[in-house]
Design brief:
single chain, BirA Bifunctional Protein, domain 2, 453 residues, seven-stranded mixed beta sheet
């Protein structure tokens, strides 16, 4: 049985060390979370899967890791400084602040039901900074609210250092910051989160075909690499396009409480490079862009064969890794009735994504020979470099199995008295609970087969 509701996953995250509330011992801070020992591993494995698919398996995409603190001019010309805001409404009775567009009833307070509300006003979502000894508290920089813009402003740097023909892309994974009015939905709406984005630069006229190709490519990744069934995913076109967009669709996943966005694919046309380039009048920019009098670089592409110099269009794919991890956990979460009033919770993650790849368990922790043999096996398995291998020496074998079921460990390896006699161990498989007896010497190859299968 899958998770009945989101609270099942939230409880597991806290209990098993995936996600903790931020600043918890001081009462917390809304919209912030800390990732625990197994959360950082699962998140890393999702990042690695994405990076492998987007960079290592292609010849046309480069990576970037740009600064999180940015010159405010980036956000002036991107349009964020003037337009990146949410409608804020405050209840005059209980002083609760709410996003008007997310209220259950826009005429009544969500908290107390009062109809005595302020008029909506724009609420700036960017987090401003005062940088430098002479800033005197004035905002002269921002924490970036997205990773896309720093990709656009590095377009020429990347193209000059790693020349490419069109189409080609730049990817980035990194933290972003938004001054959310009402963080909610666990890791769905946060003040600090992580994005993984591709900006793919194409010729005008090729953009619609590339948009459809990337829709198919990204959907395939969710199915094949994350293990999400196709029937739990859908595309939802945007009813109202952003000012920069020519087309936009979201991949949505069916969470326990319904479908919600997990990734966006956008045709951004020539808005972004056109906004940040100098000498804008030299180019036939189709998007409505602000006149830029500050940029020092032409963000154009020169075709070496035709001599044509133009502003490329951009196809964007953008996901939040926090939300992606949550979707993966929701899909993997399973409650099983084992009979005789016994049950178990198991995270049926793809082995490559599992936070712990294997747990080695000496059957009796008070038998030095068993512990020593288990230690030797752990050392050998760690040499494989496939991820975290745990030495589980806390006692009761049944409880050990249940703990590793809940964190998604694909296989537990038990070292017992028979091991001392014939050099074999028991492999217990997470999903089926089936056990197989194999020689210790065969364990590394068998584990590689399981993890990469």
């Amino acid at each position: 049985m899958p998770a009945k509701n989101i609270n099942d996953i939230v409880s597991l995250c806290k209990r098993r060390g995936f996600i903790f509330p931020g600043s918890e011992i001081y009462g917390g801070l809304g919209g912030t979370y800390d990732y625990g020992p197994y959360g950082v591993e699962l998140m890393k494995n999702i990042r690695d899967s994405w990076w492998n698919a987007m960079v290592y398996q292609r010849d046309d995409v480069e990576g970037l890791d740009a600064a999180q603190i940015t010159n405010r001019l980036l956000w002036k010309y991107s349009g964020h400084e003037a337009g990146f805001s949410d409608p804020l409404v405050e209840c005059k009775k209980c002083k609760t602040r709410m996003r008007q567009d997310k209220m259950a009833d826009q005429t009544k307070c969500d908290a107390c039901g009062s109809g005595d509300l302020t008029e909506p006003r724009a609420y700036q979502l960017m987090m401003g900074l005062s940088v430098g000894a002479t800033a005197d508290g004035a905002i002269n920089a921002y924490l970036r609210p997205e990773t896309a813009t720093t990709i656009f402003t590095n377009f020429k740097n990347v193209l000059d250092s790693t020349p490419h023909k069109l189409p080609f892309g730049i990817v980035q994974i990194g933290r972003v910051f938004r001054n959310e009015i009402s963080p909610r939905g666990f890791v769905f709406r946060m003040r600090e989160f992580e994005q993984a984005e591709l900006q793919y630069f194409v010729r005008p006229g090729d953009d619609e075909e590339q948009f459809n190709d990337w829709k198919a490519t990204r959907l395939q990744w969710w199915i094949e690499q994350l293990g999400i069934p196709a029937e739990k995913l859908r595309f939802l076109p945007h009813e109202k396009l952003a000012h920069y967009a020519k087309a936009a669709e979201d991949i949505e996943y069916e969470f326990p409480d319904g479908f919600d966005e997990v990734e966006g694919i956008h045709n951004r046309a020539d808005f972004d490079l056109g906004s940040h380039t100098k000498s804008q009048k030299e180019f036939d920019i189709k998007a409505a862009v602000m006149e830029n009098t500050d940029s020092t670089a032409k963000l154009s592409f020169s075709d070496p064969q035709t001599g044509e110099n133009f502003i490329p269009y951009v196809i964007e794919t953008s996901l939040g890794t926090n939300r992606t991890m949550f979707a993966v956990m929701c899909e993997a979460y399973t409650e099983e009735d084992l009979g005789d009033d016994k049950s178990r919770v198991v995270l049926k993650l793809k082995p490559r994504l599992a936070p712990v790849k294997a747990a080695v368990i000496p059957l009796a922790r008070n038998v030095p020979e068993l512990v020593a043999r288990a230690d030797e096996l752990v050392v050998d398995l760690r040499k494989l470099g496939i991820g975290r291998i745990e030495m589980e020496n806390s006692g009761n074998i049944g409880k050990n199995y249940r703990r590793h079921d809940e964190i998604g460990t694909p296989v537990c390896i038990t070292v017992d008295h028979q091991t001392l006699e014939d050099g074999t161990v028991t492999l217990r498989h997470r999903d089926t609970m089936a056990q197989e007896r194999i020689a210790i010497a065969a364990v590394p190859a068998r584990l590689m087969e399981i993890v990469n299968g």
